[in-house]
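Render this sequence as a predicted structure.
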Amino acid sequence: MHTVECDVGVAALVRKARSILLVKEAHGRYKGCWGLPKGYVNENELPSHAALRELSEECSVEGRIIGVQAIRERLIEGTPAIFIAYLVELLEDQTPVPGEEVLETRYIHVDEFEDLNWISDAMHSMASSAVNSNQTLQTIDYQPSQGHPYMLHTLPKTWGGRA
């Protein structure tokens, strides 16, 4: 196996009916733009755990990973850059409120997506896909049986047929 340095970013996709939880950025080059709760993966952190951490930091809510909704890949000055958008279900009775990194958190209906100033076309596509499709890679947490962080993202099992 060959190791290569890689930039890894993550996002949390939280659905509510035909709406997605979005945040309005407070700082940096995307100030005032809308996007998913997102960020980078820290050293010694699984990407799925980073998505939940970012959701907590930006929206002050806790959730659990349901699956992978989208993966974006590109090269940045020759370095692979991977961005994974996880479908997340909030734990019960939580209301998102803005953390320090964002101006606003809000569930926005898919009909309003075209009117938003998005962080990127890719993020707009990820949000649209999450609202318009029920297909995701399911997530299985093998950490309890393996004794170390170990997640599998796979197509859901289908019964009754041959593989």
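Summary. Residues 25 and 32 are 5 Å apart (CA to CA). The longest strand covers residues 63-76.
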